[in-house]
Amino acid sequence: MSKDNRLFTFMIIPTATSKAKRISIHHNVIYITSGLMVAFILLTIFAAFRLVQHEALNLEFHSVKSENESLKKQNEAYESSYAKLKGQISYIEDVSKELARQARMENIPEVDEQVGMGGPESVSALDRAADHLERNVREIGDRLKSDLLRLASIPSGLPVNGYITDGLGIRRSPFGGGGEYHTGLDIAVDFGTPVAATADGIVIWASSHGGYGNLVAIYHSNGITTRYGHLSRITVEVGQRIKRGDQIGHAGSTGRSTGPHVHYEIRENDQPVDPLRYVEQARP
Ligand SMILES: [Zn+2]
Q: What's the whole-model pTM score?
């Protein structure tokens, strides 16, 4: 095998008139140089590609990082809102428990038992707790409302501020002729003093009625009625709805009376009862 010693000869002619220069280079040198140049170009392309790739990754990394930070902040905000909501719900629960106690509703269900507030913290647990509380509070509200209505229609206090001169029972007739049964309280007041209803109800009588003189009678509930007698003037009509404290007329001395006073009577199923039993009733 003979050794290949071919040369590549380059002619360099700087100008048209000057003498040409010859450069002879062994073919292996040409091949190696060409190979190195191709390798260099390929490496450059590869490096440029990697650089672009790296920049893209870097950008992505930064965007993921900032996204992560904002998620972290969101999470912190969420956690603090969650804690606040949880606190508010347990506050409302405490208040509703107290209200339930006052409304004598001992068997109102507890939120913890119902929705497992003690368990893993989740929005759905809070959601269930809030729903549950809403039901409880509505139930308590309904109960209190009906209690208030019931209480408002039970006579309480006196129709006028005055001096009680006579109570329920047998007394000497102020007109002579022995004893008589007095069916209510007599409360002495100045002529014309405004007279107020002692409970919510409906006016069932508003005119003169024998010895009562000008009488207003009000039906309340559960068979209870109140009567206000000897009025100088009546300011309500039969069928009118009355709230406790509403004025129904003015004190006077009409009917069987010896001076300005209000005859105040309470009847249960049309039987006169002692109004003093009702005077101290708790007001709603
Ligand atoms: Zn009387």
A: 0.60
